[in-house]
Amino acid sequence: MTDGALYITIGKLGWLTDQVAVVGGNSSITVLDSKGTEIFWTVMGDIVTSIAIFDFEGDHENELLIGTKDFEIKLLKEDAIVWDTKETASVTALAGLSNKQFAYAVGNGTIGVYEGGQRLWRVKSKHRAVSIRNFDINGDGVLELITGWSSGKVDARSCNTGDVIFKIQLSTGVAGIVEADYRRQGRPDLVAVSVSGEVRGYAPGTAMDAPEPGEIMRELMSKKQALQMELRQRAASVPNMYHHTKLAVSLISARGAARLGVAAGPGLLVHCAIVFAEGVFEGETLVAHPNRPQGELEIELRPPKNGPIDIHVKISVGPAGADLLQVFEMTRQLPRFCMYEIISHPEEASRTVIDSGVTMEVAERAQRIALWLNQSLLLAEEFEVAEEGPNAASIELWLRGLRDNKVHCFTASPSGKITVQTEDSTFAGDIVQSLAMYLGLRELNSESKFPNDESKMLEALERVKGYISLFNVFLNNSCYTYRGHQKLIKGLKDVDAKLQAEAASTAVLLKSVVIRLEDARILQNVEEMRKRLLQLKAINSDLIRNHEIRMNSNRDLSINLKELNIGVQRVAKLRVGKAATNAVSRCRTAIQDENPKALLAAMRNG
Q1: Which of 8, 301, 360, 585 could cross-link 258 (Cys pair, CB 3.0–4.6 Å)?
Q2: CB 96 within 8 Å of CB 116
Q3: Closest listed residue to residue 419, CA positions, set 507, 359, 487
Q4: Is the pTM above the cut of 0.85?
């Protein structure tokens, strides 16, 4: 395996007839049949860290779920990406559940469950999830999510709600969790193993009857402390000013970030604020504690990606010097495009912005598109469409990205023509997908032009073609030569396999020279020894040099194939439904045929 084997799983994929082994490597996925023959290979965005095979769509055909080091979870069906999402850290584990559900774990201690592409719940711990799997621990016929943690805790949660229904504590961290009939009773048991070698087994329906030593005492002490705290608060004199107190909350986009502002009522000050927001802060939590209590407090929010984010805020309010504070709890949602602010028409817009963008036809009133804009942006006042005058039933909105200061323009004409002028194809794709989701569009085609992306794709294709020539130089003294009419990836991998075979034959020659050198040493033939040593040095140098060149070429080839793959995904996100599928198919055909003109046409017209 040229790209290494970092994760391996075995199962039945819906589009293949037999069981296969799926191998995740350094930015690639390889599928092998029972004889070890490669039947499928594709490039991923980063190192593959986890793989699961399960029925995502509920059509009784298994799809391939892949987690990568760049925080992404992708679903593959044949060679198409059906669904993808991005988490807050490297995806460390995936496990298929029932009813189109799957569980995931990421490196920052978060676990959760998705159903049909929608997340049902998530929880975060200060410890790392080592292993996840499904098992009916309470014997009710419904699978639970079993998680083993680095702290030694093993818990079972409801797949639908995330509620803990069972937990145990091992003496050391969990090494792994397996399901096995280790008692030979004809039914599997849950087996948890710790890093120190401790092994515990639980049969379905029996684990609930075995509470951990001291668990009941810990629960009672926790309840006692909570009740004592409540009694102290009730006994304290609560100032009248606390009653009917309200907190003013605002969300705006300004000065390079989305900003959460809170203001206390008359006579009260904000002492502390705790903000929970997924993926916004390191550790997902921010504590804002001013040196002196203030009447107003502003918190800067910088989401790294475009997407709606729920933020949970706890704010402690009270007069100066108070020991007892009132805590307000509230939940707000950051809109998908909160990191973009509305600006006036720039005097001189960049020529790149004017010449780049995406255009589509949507049979929808401008008023409804305005509703989508109000929902997707942080606006001081709602955007309204003019009903009279020269700009009636049309929209023109200029935006500036707060992350990179890039300028974008969104326009909609009365005829339904929508144009997004931007040099950022990722932003344009997010706009297309968000608008299509809001309007309930299942099919949407578009025409796009992004010169920077197009040049990168064409350059990557040329570099890949250059590697073919390099491989042919390696083989110019043999009968193996890659021909351009073959499929691109298959041809490259075939040539690489033949290069490996030649390296193996050279290694055999190297061994024979070593044997002859040893014979000369035993016979004390100095001249023969000198001759064999020089021969050995030359063969070894050639072997090392060829290996380094081949490995460097493979690495560069993988980088360029990744660039092509990412470009194809961007092209797909500019369209919806069959138009996206057709665009991907045309791009891949052009890449396989090494046809830059066809690739450019597919990128622009789908």
Answers
A1: 301
A2: no
A3: 359
A4: no
